[in-house]
Structures are given as C-alpha cells and as structure tokens.
Amino acid sequence: MYAVFRRVGIPLVISQILAGALLGPSFLGHYLPHVGEIFATPRGWVQINTVGGYAFTLHIFTIGVKTDLGMIVKSGKKAIAIAVLGTAAPHLAMYVTALALSDRIPKQWTDTFLLTNLNSWWSLSAFIVVCCTLDDLHLLSSKLGRLAMSAALIGDFANTFAIAGVTSYLLQASPEEKLQRIGFASSLSFTIFIALMGLVARPVILRLIRDVPEGGILSESRLVAVLLISITCSFAGELLGLHATYGPFMLGLMLPGGAPLGVTLAERLDRLVAGVLTPLLIAQGGMRMNVHMVTDASTCGLLEVFLVVGILAKFVACMVPCLYCQIPVRESVAVGLMMNFKGITEVVYASAFMDSKVLDDEAYAAFMMNVLVVGAATGAAVKYMYHPEEKYVANQRRTVESKKVGEELRVLACVHSQVDVAPVVALLDAASPTPTTPVSVYLLHLLPLAGLTSSVLRSFKHSDRHCVPTGSKATESDRVVNAFQFFVEQRQQGSSSLLPYVCIAPYATMHNDVCTVALDKRAMLIIVPFHKRLAIDGSVEPTSPNAGAIQDTNINILNYAPCSVAILVDRGSLSGVASTASIDPIDGLFPHRVAMYFLGGPDDREAMALAAYMAEDAPIGLTVFRFLLPIEWQQRLDPEEDELDDEATQEFVDRWVDDNRVMYTQHTVGGSHEMVDVIRNTSVAFDLLVVGRRADSLESPLTAGISDWSEHLELGVLGDLLTSADFGSRLSTLVVQQQTRAAAGE
Prior knowledge:
The chain is α/β, with parallel strands linked by helices.
C-alpha cells in the first residue's frame, strides 16, 4: 500500500492505519468477523498492545536521543513565533468555539472532559509526527523542514510546561486547602523529576558511553542498562500523572545524539521497534475504528467543527509569522501544512482515551477518519507544492569556462570518508594554485544520518561529537580537514584558502545541502567522488557499504547543482605519482600528465576549460585530443554548438600555441570504434583523463554503439567507457558536466 501512496506524498503512518482499518470492522471485519484472528486472537492483541506500548516508549526515547537540542538555540525568531502562535491560536480558537456551542455539547463530553483533552493534543504539532513525516517526504534537509522541526520541538516544550504550570497554578489558587497542597506537591514533584533525570540518570548514561571506542557501539549489557533507566523514567512519570512517553523523551533530549548511543539505538532497536512493533500498535489503532458506528450526524458534525477550527487556526497562525518574515506565500502555506501533520501521536492518544472511556466508538471512528484525511492531505499537498530543488538556480553563469582571468576558482570539494581525501587533494594539487590563479576550497564532509533525527549542516569544529564516532582525540572529520589544511599550508600564501563544513543528512536529501553550500558560496565547480574504486587485486569495488546511496546522491547533485560538477573516478594514478620536487618540467618530465578528450558540446568545453586552468601555472603536461568525423559524414545537427566548439578550440590553440607543456591534436575517425582505438593507444601515457559527460548532447556517430553498454549513466558515455573493466584502464578519470541550471536569460 505504501509503495503506491508514497508516490503522492502520503506518509507511512497513514498506510499503517489504513492497513489496520482494512482488517477491522470498518471493512473486511464487517463481513468476516474473525478475519483479525488470522494475525492474533483477542487475547493476543492485548499482548501486542502491551508490547507495542513499550515499543512506542522506546521509540520516543530513541527519537529524543537523536534530537539535537541545539535546534532550539539556533531556531531563531521565526521558529519561536511559529511555535507560540501555532500552539496558542488553536487552543484559543477551540476554546472560544466550545463556549459558543456550549448549549449543543453532549453531557457525556462534559463529564469525560473530552473537549479539554481534545484541545490539549489536537492543537499540538508533535515533534515526532513532524519529523517522521518530513523523513517520509525526504524534506529533513530542506530549509522549511528544519524550520518546521524547530518550531514543533519548541511547541512541544512550550505546551508541556504551560499545561504543567497552569494546572499547578490553578490548584494552588484554589480556596480549598487540599487542592492547594496537591498543586504545590505537583509543582515540587515535577521539578524533582526533571532534576533527577538531569543530575542522576544523565550522568549514569554518560558514564556508560564514555569509553566506547571510535566506530564502536554499546555492548548488550550497557544497552540494557540504558533502556532500563529510560523505562524507570517512564514509570516515574506515570506515577506523577504524566504520559508514559514524557520521561523517556525528556531523558533522551538530555543525552548526546550521534555515536555511540544514537547509532547503537538505531542499529539495535530501529528494525524491531520502529519497523515491526510500533507499526503493529498503529495498525491496531486502525483496527479499532468502526466507521459503521458513525450514525449520529449532529454529534459527529459537532466534533468535526472543533477539529476543523483547530486545523484552520493552526494553519493561519503558522502562516502569519512566515509572511511577516517575507517568506514567499507558497512556502508559508507549506509551513502551515507541515505544522498540521497528523500521525502516530494522535493514534496513541486516541487509543488511550478510548480505553479510559473519554472517547466512545463513534467519536473514536470520527476522530480517526479525520487523522487519516488530514494526515494524507497535508503530506500530499506538501509534496506537490514544495520542491526545495527549485531554488538551486544561480542568477549568473557559474562555470570554469566563464571564469574571468585572475578570478579565483571557487571549488566545493565533497568527501564521504578518508578514502576520498587523497584523490581530491591530488586533483587540487595538480592544479598548483598560485596567487595569480587562486583556488578557494569549500570542503564538505558528508556523513549519513545515523543516531540523529534532524539533518545537520554547519561549519566544522574540531572534535565535534555530533559529527563522527567518539572515543579518540581526533575524529574522522578532524583527519579529513587536517589533510586539506595541510594542502593549503603547503601552497604559496594567497594561492588557496579552505572553509570546511560538516553535513549529516540522509543520502536521499544530501544533495540539498551540497547545492545549498554551492549556491551560497557562489561555487563554480563541485567535485564529488565516484562510488567505486580500484582494489589491490585490480578489481573494481565499492568505496563503502553505502555505495548505491552515494551513487544516487551524485546523480541528484548532477541534476540540481547550481554550477558545474565533476565526478572524480579514482584509480590511484593521480595520487600515486611522484612529487613535484623530484621531477623537472624543463626536461620534458612532469609530475602530472593530463589528457582531455574533446568530442564537442557544453560539457566538453567546460572540461577543456578546467584542463586549461590546471595547466595555467602548474608544471603539468596537457594534451587535448579532438575527434572529428570525415567531411562526408558530418551532419551539422546543431550548427550553433559546432560553432561554439570551433571557437573554444581555436581560442585554446591561440592561448597555448607557444607553450611546450600543452599539445593539441585533431583526429578524424570513422566512428566510435576508431575513436576508442585512439583513446586506448594514447591514454596509457597519462595520469589523469578529463572528459565531458555529454548527457544532454545530441547522439553522435562518435558514441554510437557505446551508449548501449553504459553501466553508470552519471559518467556519460565516454566516462563510463574509460572506467569500465572491459576497457582495462587503471587511470583516474574526471568527468565534467557544465552548469545546467541558470536563471532565464543567462
């Protein structure tokens, strides 16, 4: 079911509720009363409900651990305004509506305080719901996604402490001495509870995770100890009148996310808790819904009025601060919809209130139908109207080809691990930046989202516990940045600079952070590593267990980048050559020899411009091979592009005609097979091969037949050929794509 719904943006939790509803009395259970016993007997469902409740508590604790509490500090005025107005407005609107319709409210609702309870949790934008739904929509890394999560987290805090404070105040203000004592005891116990979690439970858990080695996870005994502490906090919260999830969530927020605790919880619990037990709890909530019980139109209509008023009030209240801060109307609407996401929290609360007889079967069914409709509609609407990739459009050309003479080359270098560092540094070293041809390097260390709920994009700080596994003085990010910093320090002063960043995000949305940094820093070129490398035995192997996800990230970067992109395929030839100190370019020997194969088109022109930049002030040997078809074969399908190719190559020849480091040759070939023979015979003399991706170029006889066997489309036809095992090359290859997204008229 979710495989279909996800295409239109309907969250996973809605599919799980519907799956339960299909088996319940609303659908199949109405005609086949015992169909639910296929999965469990009535007694079995009681056990599943118990285990599911425990699993939900652990799920909340895990989310608390993964949550970066710094979001509140960094959220800014917009998130605070959205949280305050988005929580207060529906409270007030539903309260006023209840006063206006007080004569129509059923006595049963008054006796069970239904509207009071409904007001308290229907007005809330639960952080867990917003976070999980944004994850389903792949919007965790988006600007609005971060804003909505910050507002939801602040709203959760504000709502919890406001209710506790108001309740205690009203009790203490009561004329009855007994109620005053209860109010004072409530305030005191709440304060002591928070203090014990912060001063006792937190230090104990920090002690348990302190000496875990880098890259390691907690042992089973330590993990069990942590879980027992969280369950103890849950039980203590229940004794104080709080919901069972409150204590574990607050404790989780007090603990550091990431490794080792967050990663351990993700690896050991997510598959079982979030993947099996919690969905069973949600499905059971759907099974309890019986739409055939909805018979009283006046009662259900009254409930619908309260729910709609709450939704509209929150929607408008969340839009107002966005519009005031000059956020576009379309994005303001998206924020209002995000803050109205509904899901697991509503299901759990509704089931609990049904067990306590606050909700009857009819009200429960009507409420769950609203959860389904609102949850599905808001998710689908956000997916339809909010596309963060649309903003990654530069207002001017950001390419190496359009770079002015003497202007610094702004490069965004992306690395996933230490394996990627050496080839990228070697590529930058091959360019040999100087004060007249400077390079500004923006380093982005890309890390998968593990042990955290919200994505992170920030400037690098040494030994940041959120970045990588702890346990040693130097983290992986430290070592990555140190390697690039060493490269900068070895260059002449004023020739290069470094500004490192750390990005922690799901692979599905990692390209958003890459494109954001590239756009903000006006990068001209993004360098990303290929997801495969050459093994010691000569075979090609993935660079990491997440190679497939890295490949998808590279493809997304190619599709949405606001500047040119280069994929570096490392085969060791570039980083394994001798140093510049041992080779004399005057004798015709160079520390790096670069070949550029030119077929034509914007990507090839960009590749040639990059190769020319590398040869500007560097002791490298550069040879450009241009392939042409025989005159009788030439079909000028795009005369404008052909003219641009001729101008670019002629300008290149005029610029380098007197430089013995650079050569330019033209080869007239009778098709792809002859071109491949030339490349095979000439490439062995070089360390680095540079080609254009040619993804949007017209089909040419030069590539006819080759494209049918392409395995990696992100490398283009020629790039895939040069890096294939059949070609047999052990040379590093740089595949270049020129900027494809620019403002109209540029």
